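Next up, sample data.

:::
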Amino acid sequence: MTLLTPQEAILCLQAGNQRFVSGQLDARDSGAEIRNTASGAHPFAVVLGCIDSRVPPELIFDQGLGALYCVRVAGNLLDDAVLASLEFACCVSGAVLLVVLGHTDCGAVKGACAGLRQGTLTKAFEQLAPAFAAAKSNGQNEPANSTNSAFVNLVAQEHVALTLAEIKQRCPALAAAEEQGTVDLVGAFYDVQTGEVMFSDIASG
């Protein structure tokens, strides 16, 4: 189990992202990391992110082997297997931070906004409908379609917030852990233009 508090874990990710953006990454010895984690690891955070090749959590947060659990699904969508993975990371393995990580220029969100119908993607993209509706009701980023990058990004941000709420609603163990202060559930948003990550829903204390 990690010795970090949830607040320290957030600071660790923020500092890592600052190193990533500045190009001043920590020096790493891959051989040593392999040896040090061979018998086990104690990740301090779990990240639910997108499969987009531009947004690998370990890189954008400058973390080495064994530091993070990473669950990556197109559009950072939530299903039972993903939820079970998040619950395992925090409630069994001891991670103290759960991050739902969205990003700008998300292809999955664009597809949903365009009404793309493609095999199993069709049903998966239905999960983005509430975020689409929330962004559209905002009324500040017309037109409400995939050609408008501001609208697409707003949908992606709304989806992060809604996913956090869904995790708490569907997983009593995670909701209780957050209530007890042993785990923080936070949203984050990565800008593919700058490499920066902005956090939201950060608990005080």
Summary: Residues 149-170 form the longest helix (22 residues).
